[in-house]
Amino acid sequence: MTTQPVPQLDELAEAEAMFASVHRSLAELREALESLKQQAISGEEIDATATTKTVSQLSEAVARCQKAGLILYDCRNKQAGIARGGYALDFDKARADIGCKLDRLRCAIGSGEFLE
């Protein structure tokens, strides 16, 4: 069985920075959308081109945020040793378990319990 290499810390930091950047963009776009909403409520004239652009940017930012979130999630899981299926591979525990079983097998062979 092959395992994937653990990502470098800079890869995780880069993913976290990307997620934070997209999150900030979403906050800014949310403010712009709130401003447009207030203009509509107060009866002010709304620039259709600016509104369309803001809504389009918001949609794109949400998609980028989802993608960045998935990348960050994968990086954190890789760093924690969690495989894509959601399970962690504890190599230290597996190594210890195998060592114990080998020790028991050596003891059993040394006692003559297993003869060829």
Question: How would you describe this protein?
Answer:
- The protein is mainly alpha-helical and 116 residues long.
- It is 75% helix and 0% strand.
- The protein is built from 3 helices and no strands.
Task: Explain briefly what this protein structure is.
With 116 residues, the protein is mostly helical. It is built from three helices and no strands. Helix 1 (9-42) runs antiparallel to helix 2.
Which SSEs are present, and which pair or pack?
Layout: H1 9-42, H2 48-80, H3 91-110
- For this structure, the CATH topology of the domain at 9-89 is Helix Hairpins
Kindly state the percentage of residues in helix: over 70%
Low-confidence stretches: none
The first-level CATH class of the domain at 9-89 is given as: Mainly Alpha
Give the CA-CA distance, first to last residue.
31 Å
Major sheet details: none
Mean pLDDT: 80
CATH architecture of the domain at 9-89: Orthogonal Bundle
Keywords:
single chain, mainly alpha, Helix Hairpins, 3 helices
